[in-house]
Design brief:
Blueprint: H1 44-101, H2 104-117, H3 129-139, H4 155-159, E1 161-163, E2 179-184, H5 188-204, E3 208-210, E4 213-214, H6 226-229, H7 232-238, E5 245-246, H8 251-254, E6 264-266, H9 276-290, E7 292-298, H10 309-322, H11 327-340, H12 349-360, H13 371-379, E8 390-393, H14 398-404, H15 411-425, H16 427-435, H17 441-446, H18 454-464, E9 472-475, H19 482-492, E10 496-497, H20 499-502, H21 505-508, H22 515-527, E11 531-534, H23 540-552, E12 559-560, H24 564-571, H25 579-593, E13 615-617
Parallel strand pairs: 2-3, 2-4, 2-7, 3-5, 6-7, 8-9, 8-11, 9-10, 11-12
Antiparallel strand pairs: 1-13
Helix pairs in contact: 3-18, 5-10, 11-12, 11-22, 14-15, 15-16, 18-19, 18-25, 22-23, 24-25
């Protein structure tokens, strides 16, 4: 028996070499094969060393990979533990909230504890003494020039839109489905919107429209009817290619008890901004059955979108073309505009649409003024040779102030007065305030839901750069707070006037006790102004005036629309902000509202007439 050879596992030089990319030396019994690294190798010892180095490197790589896996496993474990603890904590918070919700005392205590560490919010106290003093100092600087864009619109973009709502592409309806009556509520501006909306509804239902009537409001206390404000003949004639309009119901329908037969439809029965489908589905069957429908309190009860192109155009046609004021309103308004323009230095293109050619000519007729009237006009412009004037709609009457639920610095007296007014004129709102918790006055102000006070309005004008000599026409009746509140405006802008100051008692007498007709004078004076500033963009007069200026202004009649939320944020810093910073921030906020853009979907065509239905874009 020969000596026994050790097997391959006991030979260190050949152990596991195949695992690391080197085949073991060939067995003498089997001989080399074609896969052996050593087959035909002239230097097998060198090859073995090389394989050892590869084996060591591979071992190191394996240890590194094992360590990495271990680290990842540890991190995963900690993540899992962390997730488990957080989920348990969340469950504890939910349980705690549920427990607190059933215990108001604990909630109150928790809120008080939180408030100790929170930064106190600025509160409105109704006073702007420091800022008004800074504004007065800024206006006293004689060499300070007004910004160039103050009296201008972005002309190129604005002038590209031209009025074209007068164009028609349909034949008139015969109104054979019956008759529509409407009694519109609100003031003159809400009534105007209601009239234009009902014209569209009449066309939609192929019904004849009876001349609209206006409801007597306990707020406005004005018995004026359609014919006291608008020219009935022009209204009927201009819209005759669109709908059939009559002055009254036929005799056979006049004796009907409309309420008994179910033909009276109130605001409660029609949702706000109802779509055409609603009228076709719910109103048309009643009309076909009873031959007559009476809408009572009809207001914003027709949606702006979606609406067929021609119906939307009819809406614009009614507002901008069919509703002309009666001659006595136009003539008095022409005198007002003439005196505002420094004894009538020019007639603007928009004047012809507002006043008609005959009344517009009175703007240049100086012979119509008595010496007393001349003195009233010249006193408002004695320190300014410019014929430009700024119209400011100060929507700060008591109804607006009371309905806003805001606080205006009048203390307990103010709160009692406004509560009493709400109980009398807004009983449903008064009841709600007692049953339901509303947002606080401070929150309403920070969210931009409070009308601007006269103090805030004058700070805005001063910051924008209107100089002290600017002629300012203030529209609006019976400012809440009276002459004391207006004194703030007149102290900074001595050329401030109202229609009561520019028109004599005899000229105003025909309009006494008719708030809607007095509002028509304000409407014309604001629409004809070289610049128009509103203090509440939600006001109907401001919306209608700004839309009228866009439609007929030719890109030359700027409107200032404050973003009340942004302005409120600036004004709440009144105790610390510097005037130059205040100026810069206010101008930036207002400049952004002057951008020219097409009507957003769903918004009013009366306020935003830049749309294909109302205006044509060049």
């Amino acid at each position: 028996m020969g000596q026994e050879r050790p097997n391959d596992e006991e030979r260190p030089e050949s152990r596991d070499l195949g695992v690391y990319g080197c085949s073991p030396p060939h067995s003498p019994r089997l001989g080399p094969n074609r896969f052996s690294v050593f087959a035909g190798d002239p230097n097998p010892k060198l090859t073995i060393k090389r394989c050892k180095r590869k084996r060591i490197q591979a071992c190191n790589d394996q240890r590194t990979a094992t360590a990495a896996i271990g680290v990842m496993a540890i991190l995963g474990f900690f993540c899992l533990v962390n997730w488990f603890m957080l989920s348990r904590l969340h469950e504890g918070r939910v349980w705690l909230r549920r427990g607190l919700s059933n215990n108001p005392k604990l909630v109150s205590a928790q809120n008080e504890e939180r408030q100790k560490f929170e930064k106190p919010k600025r509160k409105y106290n109704g006073t702007y003494g420091r800022m008004l003093s800074l504004a007065a100092h800024a206006l006293a600087e004689q060499n300070k020039l007004e910004p160039k864009e103050l009296w201008q619109e972005p002309k190129e973009q604005a002038s590209a839109w031209k009025p074209c709502a007068d164009q028609r592409s349909w034949t008139p309806d015969d109104g054979k489905n019956g008759y529509i009556m409407v009694t519109a509520n609100g003031g003159i501006n809400q009534q105007r919107v209601a009239v234009c909306n009902i014209v569209v509804v009449a066309r939609l239902l192929n019904a004849a429209l009876v001349i609209p009537k206006f409801m007597l409001s306990d707020v406005w206390t004005d018995a004026s009817q359609f014919g006291d404000i608008y020219q009935e003949d022009h209204f009927m004639e201009y819209l005759s290619p669109d709908i059939r309009i009559v002055t009254e119901l036929p005799e056979e329908l006049q004796s009907l008890d409309l309420e008994e037969i179910g033909s009276v439809v109130t605001d409660i029965e029609v949702m706000k901004e109802a779509k055409p489908d609603f009228y076709m589905t719910h109103i048309l069957p009643i009309l076909l059955k009873n031959r007559v429908i009476h809408f009572v309190g009809f207001g914003n009860r027709l949606a702006f979108d979606p609406l067929p192109f021609e119906l939307q155009r009819l809406r614009c046609r009614c507002n901008f073309h069919a509703l002309n004021f009666v001659p006595r309103i136009q003539e008095t308004a022409a005198l007002l505009v003439r005196r505002l323009r420094d004894s009538g230095s020019y007639v603007a293109p928009l004047d012809l649409h507002l006043l008609g050619p005959k009344s517009a000519s009175l703007i240049l007729d100086k012979k119509s003024d008595s010496p007393v009237q001349e003195e009233a006009a010249s006193s408002s412009s004695s320190s300014s040779s410019s014929s430009k004037y700024l119209a400011l709609h100060l929507r700060f009457e008591i109804d607006m102030v009371a309905h806003s639920l805001c606080y205006f610095g009048g203390g307990e007296t103010e709160q009692k007065e406004l509560d009493s007014y709400r109980q009398k004129h807004f009983p449903s709102l008064s009841t709600l305030t007692k049953k339901k918790k509303f947002r606080s006055a401070d929150v309403l102000r920070t969210e931009g839901l409070c009308p601007l006070t006269p103090e805030e309005a004058v700070l805005m004008l001063a910051a924008l750069g209107f100089n002290r000599e600017t002629r300012v026409f203030v529209a609006g009746a019976n400012i809440y707070g009276g002459s004391k509140r207006l004194a703030v405006l007149t102290s900074l802008y001595p050329n401030l006037v109202t229609k009561e100051k520019l028109l004599t008692e005899s000229e105003l007498q025909p309009f006494k006790n008719f708030s809607s007709q007095l509002a028509a004078l304000d409407f014309i004076a604001c629409a004809a102004a070289d610049a128009f500033a509103m203090t509440d963009s939600g006001s109907q007069l401001s919306s209608l005036v700004s839309g009228y200026r866009i439609y007929y202004g030719g890109g030359k009649m700027p409107t200032i629309r404050p973003n009340k939320r942004r302005l409120s944020d600036i004004l709440l810093k009144n105790s610390t902000i510097e005037w130059n910073v205040f100026e810069r921030r206010v101008r930036k906020a207002i400049r952004q509202t002057k951008h020219v853009f097409a009507r957003p979907n769903g918004r009013s065509v009366y306020r935003y007439p830049r749309c294909k239905e109302c205006m044509c874009h060049a």
